[in-house]
Structures are given as C-alpha cells and as structure tokens.
Specification:
This protein is of the alpha/beta class and about 290 residues long. The chain has a single domain, classed as TIM Barrel, CATH 3.20.20. It is built from twelve helices and eight strands. It starts with a strand and ends with a helix. The mean pLDDT is about 95.
Amino acid sequence: MKLQGVFPILATTFHDDGSLDLESQARLTAYLLESGAHGLGVLGNASEGYTLDAAERRRIFEVVRREAGARAPLVVSTGATGTEVAVRQSREAEDMGADALMVLPPYLLKPDGDGLLCYFEAISKAVTIPIMVQDAPLLTQVAMPAALLARMGRQIERVAYAKVEAPPTAPKVSAVLQQAESRLTVFGGLNGNFLIEEVQRGARGVMPASDMTRQFVAVWERLEAGDTPCAWQIFTRLLPLIRFELQPGLGVSAVKHNLAACGVIASPQVRSPTGSLDAEGLRELEALRRL
C-alpha cells in the first residue's frame, strides 16, 4: 500500500487537568476519517508527542487503531535522541499495528551524514514497515540535504518516504525527487503552507494539523482532478488560519480551540511546554473562524 493524500497529524486530547481524554481522542479520530483523511499521523510534534510517556503513547495508539480499524493507514512518530530508543519505539509501534513510521533524526547530539545513515539503517533493520524520514530543521536544527535524503532512499531498505519541512520546501521537493531515482515518495508538512507548489513539483501527500482536514482534502481532490484554479480558490481561504497556526509554540493551542469550538473535542487543554493562546489570541482566532 502506497501512502498518498492528506494525512492530518492527530492532536492528543486532554482533560482540563491535563490527563488523557481518550473519549475525545476516539471522537477526533472518527471525525478526521469522516472528513476524508486518507490516513493519520499519530504521536507527532503537533500531537504533543514530546509530552507523553511510553504508557500514554500506547494507550493513545490503541484507541486510534481501534477507531480507525482498516479504514486508513496510521503513520506513527518514533524518532528519539538515541538510536537504541528509536529502534525500540519503532519496533513497538509496528507490533501495535502502525502501518508506517515517521522518524525524526537525533536532535540533541546532532550526527553528521554518516551518523544519520547509521541511525536510519538501524531502525530499518528492526522493522518491516516503511519509514518516512522527517526533514524538519526548524525544529531539530539537523540539516539533511536533498542528496542525503535521496541517498537514504536508495540505500536503506525501509526508507520509502521523506517529509520535507525545510524551507523553501518546494525547491527541495524537486531536488529530492530528481536525485532519489524514484525510490522516495515526498510529503509536505509545515501545516500545508506550500501544498500546491509541492504537489505541482511531485509531492504526493501533505501532513497538516487536524482542524482543517475537510478543506485540505477538497484542495487535494481539485489538484488530482487537474483543476488548479479551483484548488487555489479553496486554499486561499485557508491561508489566514494556516498562517496563524504556524506561530511557534502556539499552533497546537489554536488547533485545539478550533476543534473544541465545533464540538469535536471536550477541551483545548495543552501540556507544558506547549503554549496556550492568551485572551487576545483567542479573539484573533475567533475572528479568523468567521472569515
């Protein structure tokens, strides 16, 4: 099964006291699939995966897997600061039913190109499902040039996807695809900010936040039908909210407030160190929802 399309990153839902809200988690999963998502990203950065312990990660994944069933593939984030931990998390994710892995490079001690090849090779040898290399230097401060990503696709057995989030993303999509010799499928991220340009250059998917899935699917479907002007019309209406949600540290809060406002989740609670919108920010967000 080849992954393609709109794969929203599933927000992790909490009660007001910060504990897991698994009922809202199941409801959100169902909502995203009913909105047309082609698959789901689970436990990623926009999921506040960095705030979850191992037991919580398992509980969330079990709920999402049960709710999704066979309706859509699940791409689970398993990158870690140490190779052995990343290998263990990746193997556990596959054992629980992940369809693919999205893996950040080590971001504390930042390895060079050879070190990155060893890291992803170790994960590849431990699993039997595809790996998506997450190229997110704004977060990790780890540079992965197009040539390195392409080399991973050519040389590492399970590396089949790259999520390009290194601005400017569209030229990098072109560079990766030109050098990968058809061995990599490229997805975009950064909340779909350059979705149309990336798809026009050969990207086959996008992984935005989980509050505009229906609209992103509409854009995707128009692009697939060859109706680029209509895709731009839909996309342009999304841009103010996309832009607002790209604020570092506050985007997750905005997404959750949007989901809570339409009754999908019970609470917009985030976990520290994720930031919360202040009163003025909430008024700004509400104004964008009315556009």
